Structures are given as structure tokens and as C-alpha cells.
Amino acid sequence: MGKSFFTFIQENNLIHAFFYETTKQTNNMASVNKVILVGNLGKDPEIKTFESGKKSASFSLATTEKFKNKAGETVTTTEWHNIVVWGTLADICEKYLKKGSQIYLDGKIKTRTWEDKSGTKKYITEIFADTIQFLAKNDKSENDKSTKQENISTQYESDDLPF
């Protein structure tokens, strides 16, 4: 049996009523794993080539937020994110990105676990990028004197990942 419910939203002097009805009852809620970041690389991409010939690139990305505290002082905070890219996108990152490059990316969050040599369980949370857009001039390209903006997207299957 489905569920029915109303939602009321007050906007200025108007009240909007929305009626929702589900066709079947379910305990499973939909979920979204989506990350969008704009930041600067903290180091050159580290490239790994696997026996299959598939490449991965990993690098840190800094995102910075500025705000004023209660005293009116500007406060700057920086978050560091571990980024991983695969395949053709890794090739492109190897060729064009370097420490300080500004990029836009979207992808998803994944957490991996492993045991180190002493048997201690370790965790790392990474952003697996699906799309990267270069936002600033690329100094590696000597032929292009204009601001370079590229939008690169790739899709990969989880079976393609080497772990």
C-alpha cells in the first residue's frame, strides 16, 4: 500500500501545498554519491601503470573557504582532498596538470581499507573523479598562449579497478 502526505511551504504571504502519493511502500531510500570541487592541486599527479596497461593518477586538491568570524576578522580554512582518476583521464592529467593547477571536478566518494605491514587497519577516503575541467592557464603547453579550458569526462566500471 502506498503512502500519501502533504507538504506546506510558506513564502511571503502565500502558502503552497504539495500532495505526494507513493505507489508502493518501500523502506529503501534512494541515495546520491556526488562530489563537486573547485580547487588547486597540492602536488603533481602521481601516475601508476598496471600490468594491464591501465593507468591511474592520484593527487591532493585544496579547497579554500573564506568567511568573517564574530569579531569581523577574515578567516581562511583549507580542506585537502585525495583525488583518484583512471584510464584516459589519468593520461590527460599526467600530461597537463601540475602542482598549483586550478580545476573543477565531479565524481564520487569512496573509502578503502587495508592492513599495513604491522597488521594495523588503515582507512583512506578518496574522490574518484569522473569529469575534470581545467580552469587556469596551463604553463606546460608552450604553443597555446591563451587560457586553456578543457572539459574531460570518463566513465569506468568498478570491475576495471585493480583493487
What would your notes on this structure say?
Helix content is 6%, strand content 52%. It has 163 residues and is mainly β. It has one domain: Nucleic acid-binding proteins (OB fold (Dihydrolipoamide Acetyltransferase, E2P), Beta Barrel). Strands 3-5-6-8-7 form a 5-stranded mixed beta barrel. A two-stranded antiparallel sheet has the order 1-2. The longest helix has 10 residues, at 87-96. The chain is globular and about 55 Å long. The two termini are 42 Å apart.
Question: Can I get a quick summary?
Answer:
The protein has 163 residues and is mainly β. It has one helix and nine strands. It has one domain (32-157): OB fold (Dihydrolipoamide Acetyltransferase, E2P) (Beta Barrel), CATH 2.40.50.140.
